[in-house]
Amino acid sequence: MNKSKVFWLIATIGAIILSAGCLEQNAPISGALEKQIALGKKVFAQKECGKCHGGAGLPSQGAAQQPEMKAPDLTSVFLAIDTVFIKAHLRFIELSQMPSIDLTQQEIDALAKYVASLHAKAKTDPNLQNPDGACPVCGAPLKMAGALQAEYQGKSFYFECDDCKRLFERDAGWYAKK
Fold first, then answer.
1. pTM of the predicted model, to two decimals?
2. Same domain (yes/no): 119, 152
3. I want to staple 131 with a disulfide (CB 3.0 to 4.6 A). Which of 16, 49, 83, 141 is the partner?
4. Are 142 and 134 spatial neighbours (Cβ–Cβ below 8 Å)?
């Protein structure tokens, strides 16, 4: 089996686990999670991930070293909800086009949490004060008065971006249970 097929097999397994509801979301960020995210941010900087994955508020060290590679947008809503995919990708990095990076399991876990936090961070208004809601998809804090809205079974749900709203509308029942 070639590397590309193995990579997509791993990605598919991660998506199945995600769709089965095995990932916990929208819980208040605990002190332990904040520490993991901080460690992930530190590893991101130390391993110079910003050389390829810069922009969108990420710590960037300039232009990509390999401009022919299109490093994915780490603020994607799909990465925000799928730490299994991120962990599998980093664990089996040799199956991707990413340069080899020596990472411990603790660093992989921390990077996954950090990357998962980036969507909400990128989509949250930096001047937001006194949020009164949270996105049911990524957990980003928001003000319901100015947020996008969808109805499901007589209840209103609020979103900070179109991507989260579209994802919610594809499987509202799953997100509404959270």
1. 0.67
2. no
3. 141
4. yes
